[in-house]
Amino acid sequence: MTRHNLAVLGALLYGPRYLRQFATDLTRVGPRTVHESHLGAWIRGDRPVPEWLAPQAKALIPGVLRGILDRVHNLTRAALTPDFFDADGAEFVELPDLSLPDD
Cα 42 to the chain's mean position, in Å? Predict the structure, then answer.
């Protein structure tokens, strides 16, 4: 995995401020611990990206994608709720679970 692709994947999965969450989730899927400082060093080119990182990063995609799709689904439902945006309108009582699912 190149440092460029590592940065692109982090930004695609977590947005522009991705380092902390990316490192946390990489550690969660294991088997190796990844610190935010490691990601920064790999992305800057201070240290080479280790070969073991690609499978660990790839393992994140299904869970994060499910979370993104859940948020899109809930946002769509909220937007389509009659009077959702009115001051005295309907309340969207279901709060989505924004945590990553355990795989």
Answer: 19
At 60-74, the pLDDT tens digits run 999 999 988 988 988
Q: Is the pTM of this model over 0.90?
A: no
What does the DSSP assignment read for 70-90? HHHHHHHHHHHSTTTTSTT--
What does the alpha-carbon distance between residue 103 and residue 98 come to, in Å, rounded to a whole number?
15
- Angular region, 30: left φ>0, alpha ψ -120 to 50, beta rest: left
CA 44 to the chain's CA centroid: 20
Nearby residues of 103 by Cβ (< 8 Å), 6 or more positions away: 29, 59, 62, 63
Give me the count of residues in the chain: 103
